[in-house]
Amino acid sequence: MKFSRRALLMAAAVAAPLAAMASLSSTAAAEKVLRVIPHADLKNIDPIWTTAYITRNHGYMVYDTLFAMDENLKPQPQMVDTWTVSDDKLTWTFKLRDGLKWHDGNPVTAEDCVASLKRWGKRDGMGQALMDVTASLTAADDKTIVMKLKEPYGLVLDSIGKISSNVPFMMPKRLAETDPFKQVPEIVGSGPFIFKKDLWQPGAKVVYVKNPNYVPRSEPPSGAAGGKIAKVDRVEWLYIPDSQTAMNALISGEVDYYEQAPADLAPIIAKEPGVVVEVNDPLGAQGMLRMNHQLPPFNNPKLRQAVLHTIDQNIYLQAAVGNPDFYKACYSYYACGSPLASEAGFGPYKKPDLAAAKKLLAEGGYDGTPIVLMQPTDVPILSAFSLVTAQRLREIGMKVDLQAMDWSTLTSRRAKKDPVDQGGWNIFHTWWIGGDITNPVLATGLGGGGVERAWFGWPDDPELEKMRSAFAREGDAAKQKALADAIQTRALKTGTHGNVGTFFVPVAYRDNVKGLIKSPVQFFWNIDVQR
């Protein structure tokens, strides 16, 4: 029997995680273990340094937050016990709960939290906006944080309680003082699980164990809020990049939970006895096409507009998802189904216009320079998005250098601001969960703060930043809605990014897994495995 080179490479790719499954020690076998297939490989482990969702999920395992969003995306206290706001709305005082300890045994202090907020505030778009209006952030004593504002600001709790990337996770002061543009050297949190770095095998396995000293809140779990009760002794992430192999591992019971079951395999998996398939996030996720605004040719807005005119959401979604039960077109930068969702400004972009795109290429002086498009081959949806973009750009006369890599490599490379011939890039695809894009301050892709403040791709648009700042300060809902529409229209005009459609990624798990929390982010507390 002959084996193709592709088959041999695939066998090698899945050998490590399958070996990891088989090599559970006798001690681990006696423990209650939840075995998870994550959506990507964990290589970068600092959730402030990167917005990658796999690192965010890792962050939720080991860190905790001052506030957290409940199932209705409303901020609730988490590490905070009580808080007060002065009559003039300028002084916010937060008192920490009793019993909070770091994984190294030291008590959590207000100074730790102040340093953590300041570091987060230098990387996250919503954090930057909050820090812009913060006059001082100090620790009054070991348990009291005092935030004094320059002016009233309506998004204080929404900011420090945001549910997704970058999440303002708390870490010890000695680590929080790390340069925010460098990764922390050590992972020490205060959350319900402890990261076992000695058992970490990049490309194969990540291990977390229950934190015996964690003191959960008394409220029932709701979204990211409420009591975080670790009901298993150990959680193992077993990275299996081949979806067919992953599906078979779930069906056979070798794993318990498949975080992102491909839509084309979901009907097959759902028919298997003992397996549950469901959509856990009602808002879904929005696919993003991100261009590098700092390098040619996309430092020219006409070229960015040309790319937007090539987008046909149905083509992207058919290629990447396939099953129409799990996708829909959505002409809004805010999550469809959320209060600010609007088609404002999308008129020229709801249908592709390749003639307009070619005209803009000519007007922008495109000279045939190859476009470096990063393709994460281990994330099927993003890989398919990349292939569609490559074809669409070629159809309007652009040369495309499609460079294959894994997602973790892409998330490291997208931070590089170097020229293309020195390892830089022009385009990559990602997605944002609906909970990340419900308003223009929260939506990282709408930031226009340039190389110092904007997210990867670094749009530089002071007017856009001024509009987002006005939104954050506006207290009238109708005026906020008008500002949100204006911001979206401006972002489309300047080409901050492309929206390639909304999709819903089902989760799949064995029916002996109980306690799954409905949320746009996957959490592993409250989950039990009944063996």
Give the SSE layout.
Blueprint: H1 5-22, H2 26-30, E1 33-37, H3 53-62, E2 67-69, E3 75-77, E4 80-85, E5 91-96, H4 110-123, H5 125-132, E6 134-141, E7 144-149, H6 156-160, H7 173-176, E8 193-195, E9 205-210, E10 234-238, H8 243-252, E11 257-258, H9 266-270, E12 275-279, E13 285-291, H10 301-308, H11 313-320, E14 327-328, H12 354-363, E15 371-376, H13 380-395, E16 400-405, H14 407-413, E17 427-433, H15 450-453, H16 462-473, H17 477-494, E18 498-503, E19 506-510, E20 513-514, E21 528-529
Parallel strand pairs: 1-10, 1-11, 15-16, 15-17
Antiparallel strand pairs: 2-3, 4-5, 5-7, 6-7, 8-9, 9-10, 11-19, 12-19, 13-17, 13-18, 14-18, 20-21
How would you characterize this protein structure?
The chain has 531 residues and is α+β, with helices and mostly antiparallel strands. It folds into 3 domains: 5-19 and 33-40 and 193-281 and 506-529, D-Maltodextrin-Binding Protein, domain 2, CATH 3.40.190; 53-176, Dipeptide-binding Protein, Domain 1 (Dipeptide-binding Protein, domain 1, Alpha-Beta Complex), CATH 3.90.76.10; 285-503, Dipeptide-binding Protein, Domain 3 (Dipeptide-binding Protein, domain 3, Roll). It has helices spanning 5-22, 26-30, 53-62, 110-123, 125-132, 156-160, 173-176, 243-252, 266-270, 301-308, 313-320, 354-363, 380-395, 407-413, 450-453, 462-473, 477-494, and strands spanning 33-37, 67-69, 75-77, 80-85, 91-96, 134-141, 144-149, 193-195, 205-210, 234-238, 257-258, 275-279, 285-291, 327-328, 371-376, 400-405, 427-433, 498-503, 506-510, 513-514, 528-529. The chain has a 7-stranded mixed beta sheet. A 6-stranded mixed beta sheet has the order 14-18-13-17-15-16. A 4-stranded antiparallel beta sheet has the order 4-5-7-6. The chain is globular and about 65 Å long. Residues 1-14 and 22-28 have low confidence and may be disordered.
